């Protein structure tokens, strides 16, 4: 037996402390107790926080982590400070290892459409995955969307995924630029998560329904949300069509581009904001899960749009973009 004050008596193993005795079953039980909406909201908020954290880094680091294609030229030729040499070199190596073609954006839209089809089948056939998900969420007894809202939100998300796939195949020009694989994974996770988010706050209605929407009337705010979605959906298509006809790396100046640097990003934000309005549960102005998605979209595209304005200013002259809002009229 060791003396009371032996040094070894103070070196207790982690197994002796109750806080380290949590079993795997306890972890699974805790994870199962977290609602699906909480998981979706956590993803959006953490993703937005990560983008903001990157945006707060020095310009040389930010350029390596966030920009691709022509915008990689921003800051090219600028001499880095010696103190940043090792850091810049390490980040440059990391981001160069996982490069994927920018054309892989098509995977986002294929994934989104596939998710739309999958969840529609689950809904219509009372699939076990959807039943598990809505049962878990309905236990919280939170305000729910109506079944009509759920179906409309699903339809609008399907419409967006279909149009983006069409644009990628038939409208936008092929690009030889690349992006970091983390960007690709983040985009795929966003579309996967959003295709869950449009259903999840309607869990109580889904669980108690026979999949019939007879007798349900749409609220005024839902109709406003649908109209707002369709307008921004059409305007984004016009922006993309206009960009596809421009000479490569030239300055867009017609239509909404006369007032905004990236109006197609503005439309993207409005699209998801309108979805949050359409999918607002009873007595709520918006869907809390989808408003978190709007937060991520606004932060992510805002950082990209800011880089785009800087690139335009360096390539075409600051006076060409002076007076234009970056993405949000009157605010940003």
Task: Explain the layout of strands and helices.
Blueprint: H1 24-33, H2 36-55, H3 59-66, H4 85-97, E1 99-101, H5 106-124, H6 128-138, H7 147-171, E2 178-180, H8 181-200, H9 203-208, H10 220-245, H11 263-278, H12 288-316, H13 318-321
Antiparallel strand pairs: 1-2
Helix pairs in contact: 2-8, 2-12, 3-4, 5-7, 5-8, 7-10, 10-11, 11-12
Describe the structure.
There is one protein chain. This protein is an all-alpha fold. Helix content is 62%, strand content 2%. It is built from 13 helices and two strands, in the order ααααβαααβαααααα. A two-stranded antiparallel ribbon has the order 1-2. The longest helix has 29 residues. About 3% of the residues have low confidence.
**Secondary-structure element order, N to C:** HHHHEHHHEHHHHHH
- Main sheet summary: 2 strands, antiparallel
Number of β-strand runs: 2
Radius of gyration: 24 Å
Mean pLDDT: 86
| Count of helical regions | 13
How would you sum up the global shape? globular
Structural class call reads mainly alpha
Strand percentage, roughly? under 5%
Low-confidence spans: 73-83
Relative helix content:
55-70%
Cα distance spanning the termini: 70 Å
Strand arrangement in the largest pleated sheet? 1-2
Key words describing this protein structure:
13 helices, mainly alpha, 332 residues, globular, 2 strands, two-stranded antiparallel ribbon
Could you write a compact summary of the structure shown?
This protein is mainly alpha-helical and 332 residues long.
């Amino acid at each position: 037996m060791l003396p009371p004050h032996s040094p070894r008596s103070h070196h207790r193993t982690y197994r002796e402390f109750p806080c380290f005795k949590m079993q795997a079953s306890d972890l699974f039980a805790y994870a199962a107790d977290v609602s699906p909406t909480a998981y979706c909201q956590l993803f959006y908020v953490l993703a937005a926080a990560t983008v903001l954290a990157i945006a707060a880094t020095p310009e040389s680091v930010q350029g390596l982590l966030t920009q691709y294609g022509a915008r990689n030229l921003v800051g090219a030729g600028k001499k880095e400070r010696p103190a940043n040499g090792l850091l810049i070199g390490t980040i440059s190596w990391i981001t160069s290892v996982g490069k994927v073609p920018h054309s892989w954006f098509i995977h986002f839209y294929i994934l989104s459409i596939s998710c739309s089809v999958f969840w529609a089948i689950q809904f219509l056939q009372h699939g076990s995955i959807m039943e598990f998900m809505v049962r878990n969420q309905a236990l919280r007894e939170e305000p729910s969307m109506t079944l009509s809202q759920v179906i409309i939100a699903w339809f609008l998300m399907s419409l967006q995924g279909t149009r983006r796939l069409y644009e990628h195949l038939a409208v936008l020009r092929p690009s030889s630029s690349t992006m970091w694989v983390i960007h690709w994974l983040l985009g795929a996770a966003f579309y996967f998560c959003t295709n869950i988010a449009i259903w999840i706050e309607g869990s109580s209605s889904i669980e108690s329904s026979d999949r019939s929407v007879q007798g349900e009337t749409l609220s005024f705010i839902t109709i406003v949300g649908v109209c707002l979605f369709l307008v921004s959906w059409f305007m984004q298509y016009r922006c993309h069509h206009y960009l596809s006809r421009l000479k490569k790396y030239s300055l867009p100046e017609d239509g909404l581009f006369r007032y905004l640097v990236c109006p197609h990003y503005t439309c993207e934000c409005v699209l998801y904001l309108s979805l949050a309005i359409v999918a607002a549960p009873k007595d709520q102005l918006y869907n809390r899960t989808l408003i978190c998605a709007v937060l991520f979209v606004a932060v992510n595209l805002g950082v990209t749009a800011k880089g785009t304005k800087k690139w335009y200013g360096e390539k075409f002259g600051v006076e060409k973009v002076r007076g234009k809002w970056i993405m949000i009229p009157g605010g940003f």
